[in-house]
Amino acid sequence: MDKNTITVTSPLLPDRAEFELLLKEIWNSKWITNNGSFHQKLEKALAEYLKVPFISLFTNGTLPLLTALQALRITGEVITTPYSFVATTHSIWWNGCRPVFVDIEGETCGIDPDKIEAAITPKTTAIMPVSCYGKPCKMDEIQAIADKYGLKVIHDAAHAFGVEVNGESWAGKGDMASLSFHATKVYNTLEGGALVVKDEATKKRIDFLKNFGFAGETEVVAPGINSKMDEVRAAYGLVNLKHVDEAIEKRHQVAVKYREALRPVPGIRFFDDMPGVRHNYSYFPIFINAEEYGMTRDELYFKLREHGVLGRRYFYPLISTFSTYRSLPSAGAENLPVATRVANEVICLPMHHELSEADLTRILELIVR
Ligand SMILES: *Cc1c(COP(=O)(O)O)cnc(C)c1O
Fold first, then answer.
1. Which among 9, 85, 8 is positioned nearest to 305, based on CA atoms?
2. How many Å lie between the centroid of ligand 1 and the Cα of residue 190?
């Protein structure tokens, strides 16, 4: 890639010298996977950082979603949002369940609780909301509906690393919450992920399920999968965790500058901070009203590209429009008007800890008019 290209994200990389010291330890011990000491240390460190009771590491952020549905014995229909990364819906499909799409609300781009009840049938067993862009989805309302109908809540918190609401960890919300530590996320372990659970017995079961279902040397209790995080990535994650707060603060400064420059621009909307929320600034989505702005979303997106600024149209197209899902009765655009509109308006601008003043000036000169 041209070195003048500004990418939408840039991975947080751990200090090499510090990482290499840990690599030496791994080489010396020859324990490279299967719940080694770095795996145990990272689980502890993340539970502390995220202020959650129990966490189980995974090899990516998709398998914890799959495993959560399996562990909670979810069957039938699962209510979810079309406005997310495909992995959310895929995890439902992989469990042999039927995704039921419900529209989003504009305030957080999460599933709209006012539209959930109409989608519940006798087959519904769970709701899978997403805290999109790390904005806290309307969990109190979602949980109240789940309680009323006896449904489980599996929270896709892939974007919500480190997010807190009134001092409470957002990664702890839902019966189980899933995190992704992919390279494009605020915190990464190269590839990786985790499942947050509420009690030790559940953690134990999750730990079986991510290791083929082994509950001992000779006992297999369920058709589990292999999704264990290895020692190298756990060590990498331990070093990276030390610098993630700094990176989030740098992202915050970028958000402040974007908002300042874009607030006067007609036809561009963006999110402001929400009261009581510790945001992680994982993404900076803007929403283009073509009529007021004088240019469509795609015209601006391709103009940015032409000038070496790579935004991303997250989340376009909607999951409900992909071939696997488009014939589902809930997948029609008429059922999903807000999600359909937002998907056609959004561009996520470059957002990471290394964006310079010069980068921001270049990006904003292309947008502000
Ligand atoms: C990134 C992401 C995932 C999947 O994570 P991977 O680590 O890439 O498998 C799941 N859900 C959402 C909303 C994501 O953004």
1. 8
2. 13
Calpha distance 109→286 (Å, rounded)? 12
Please answer whether residues 192 and 229 qualify as being in contact, where contact means their C-beta atoms are separated by less than 8 angstroms.
yes
Kindly state the average pLDDT of the residues 201-217.
97
Cα 286 to chain center, whole Å?
Answer: 18
pLDDT band (50, 70, 90) for residue 369: confident
Residue 185 CA to ligand 1 center (angstroms) comes to 9
Ligand 1 shell residues, CB under 6 Å: 60-62, 84-85, 87-88, 130, 156, 158-159, 180, 182, 193
Last-in-domain residue among 209, 241, 273? 241
> Across all residues in the chain, what is the average pLDDT?
97
Residues 26 and 149 in one domain: yes
191 with 307, same domain: the answer is no
Residue at 180 is within a domain: yes
Ligand 1 pocket mutation, candidates 182, 210, 282, 312, criterion most atoms within 8 A of CB:
182
pLDDT of residue 3: 81
The CATH number for 89's domain is 3.40.640.10
* Structural domain of 340: 244-367
260 and 330 both lie in a single domain: yes
pLDDT, mean of residues 225-232: 98
My answer on whether 248 and 232 are in the same domain is no
Summarised one tens digit per residue, pLDDT across range 235-292 is: 999 999 999 999 999 999 999 999 999 999 999 999 999 999 999 999 999 999 999 9
User: DSSP letters along 202-239, please?
Assistant: HHHHHHHHTBTTBSSSS-B-S---B-PPPHHHHHHHHH
| Gap from CA of 9 to ligand 1 centroid (Å) | 15
Pocket test for ligand 1, best of 67, 69, 159, 180 (most atoms within 8 A of CB): 180
- Identify the sign of the CA torsion 213, 215, 220, 222: negative
Which one of 224, 241, 258 terminates a domain? Answer: 241
Give the per-residue pLDDT at 142: 98
- Considering the domain boundaries, does residue 11 fall inside one? no
Residue 30 Cα to ligand 1 midpoint, Å, equals: 31
Domain count within the chain: 2
